[in-house]
Structure formats: structure tokens, C-alpha cells
Amino acid sequence: MELSFTPTLEPRETAQRLDRLLITGPLQSPELTRRIDRLAADFRSYADCYPLPLWAPGLALTAEMRGLTEALFPMAPVRAAFRHLLTMGCRFAPFLEGTYLGSSASWLDLLHRFRPQLGCADPAATLRELACDPGKRMRFLFALLLPHHFGGTFDRYPVQSQWLAQWLRGNVTSLGGCLRALDSACGSGEGSYGLVELIGAAGFQGKGCVVHGSTLEPIELFAAAHAYFPHDPERAAEYRSRVTPLLTGRDAVAMEFYLDEVGAIGGEGNYQLILCNGLLGGPLLHEPAELERAISALASRLAPGGVLLAADRFHAGWHLRVPATKLRSLMWAHGLSPLEIGEGVGGRKTGEIVE
């Protein structure tokens, strides 16, 4: 799916663009009806024989509750029914395996973790509601794919930002006041806008500067380009307050968010700066072949003299699985001289910075 957005906060344009991603009407199909009806019957049987209190908001869960629920009302059909409905509601294939829906060991675990989006013990009732109400379905999907703790903050890598601010100030002249930068695996875009702030503070005038953000997830892409978090109004308001000056200034940096895989060969290139934070060597990208492919692809997109920075803090407290020394050696193998960043790793491509 080819998808890209230039940032805008204009409501009508945002709504029109959202139609490119989501089905905006009710969902109906014999298969969906069959799945929901079967799940409703299974839940009634479970409720009739479950010897412990049924779930309600605030209930303290025990291992016995979880085990009995999984034995009497397995999570697999529940997960499949939600996946079927959410996929029907999208014009793309949503990646749900890494969400609470994919990772919860039992239906009780999902109910407990995914509040307040889930408030009913019977999943069939929730599914019927989501099928009928596109607004609730959209908020449910955004909440699944953009939980607040998944990188949902600005200024996440302060030590890297300090190094980057100094590097930008030192290269304004050599770059002729122009810069092409990529925030690869940008998530919901906070780092991309943070980079634009640093570019302005370093003395670049905006004209001739370009910042791209790329991600593999269309919902993340949309949220980043439109500061759009329908499941979290407070987060949306804070985000918009932060980025509005960056989008409306007379010398605003040109920005674009596009769909892209970190390890993809080709695509946009000739960047003087690439950020790839919270991904390389972590729980989502650590297999040797995939990691080398990603670093090779990122290095190939750098202009001579350009730098690649990769911070190593990950979502939900996950830790680095690949030693920093290994990441540096892979960068070296692909033509990047190691840099002392203070947070994560970095490398500079052989050659002089070119304007």
C-alpha cells in the first residue's frame, strides 16, 4: 500500500484522508454474523458453568480466574473474531499481533489491560457495537495500535538530542543552510517534530530543509501527520499545541510522512541525517539477518558525510537484545565510522558532507 501524507491539522482534510484508511459505515457480512453469534453462545456456556465471579471493571484477577477462563472460554476464537472485524473495517491489513489483542494470554487479561475500551465481559456484545458504530470502531483500533506508553512522548532521547543540537549548529554553514533528514520507524511522529525544533534552534531557516518520517503502520502514519488520537483527547490537544508553530511558521520546514519498512532497499535517499530510535537491536528487530539488512538499507540512504543515530530505549521497558558493540560493528561493515553519542549508537558515512 503506497501511502504518504504532508502534515495538516485542518479538520475537513483530515477526515477526507481518514477515508483512505478506514471503512466509515457499519460492517455486515454472513461470516461476521456467524462469528459473533458463535462467540455469544460460547460465552453463555462459559458464564453458566464458571464457578467464580464474572469479570467487571475493577475486579482483581487471580491465576485461578485466568486459567479457568482460558480452559472454558479460550482466547483464540475471541482473538480471531476481533481480528476479522477490525480487518473488515480497514482498507489495509492491520498488524495486530503486537497489540494487547495479540499478546493477551486470556480474555480476562485483555479485559484487564485494555480499559476503558473494553467494559463488557461478553465479547460478542462489544463486537456487535463495534460493527454498528464506525466512530467507536475507529477509537478502538487507534487505542490498540497507539497505546500511550508506546513512545507517546516528546523529548524521549535527551542525550541524543543534545549531541544532535551541537552537530546541527556545527554544520549549518557546510550544509548551506539546507538539510535532508529521515526519522525512520517514526511511530506516532513525536521524534520527527522534535527534530524540526532542533533544526530551527540550530540556525537553519527552514527553506531548503526537509524532514521525512517513515513507519510500517498506517495508523501510526496517520496519527503523526495529523496529530490525531481520537481515543486520547488530552494527548491530541498537547500534541497539537506542540506542533502547530512548526507547521504554520513562515519558514516552516517541509515535512512528509510515508509508509516504509526500515530494511527496504531503495526509496528516498541522499539524507544528511537519519534517526532510527527504539528499534535496532530491540525486541522487534534483533535477528541477525534482519538487523544487518536494516542497517545496510539505512546506510545506503545516507549522503556522503551523513550520520545515522540509533537510540536504544524501547517501549514498555524492553531491553536491548543486541550489544551496542555489535551494532557498531555492523555500522562499520556498511561504511559508517562510529560516533560517540552518549545515548545509543551512531555512525558517519565516509566522505564529505555535500550540500
What would you say this structure looks like, in words?
The structure is a single chain. This protein is an alpha/beta fold and 355 residues long. It has two domains: 27-132, no CATH class; 158-349, Rossmann fold (3-Layer(aba) Sandwich), CATH 3.40.50. Helix content is 45%, strand content 12%. The protein has helices at 11-18, 30-49, 63-72, 75-88, 100-103, 107-113, 123-132, 134-145, 158-171, 190-201, 218-226, 233-248, 288-300, 324-333, and strands at residues 4-5, 179-184, 209-215, 254-259, 271-275, 302-310, 336-339, 345-349. An eight-stranded mixed β-sheet has the order 1-4-3-2-5-6-8-7, with helices on both faces. The longest helix has 20 residues, at 30-49. The protein starts with a strand and ends in a 6-residue tail after the last strand. The model has no long low-confidence stretch (mean pLDDT 91).
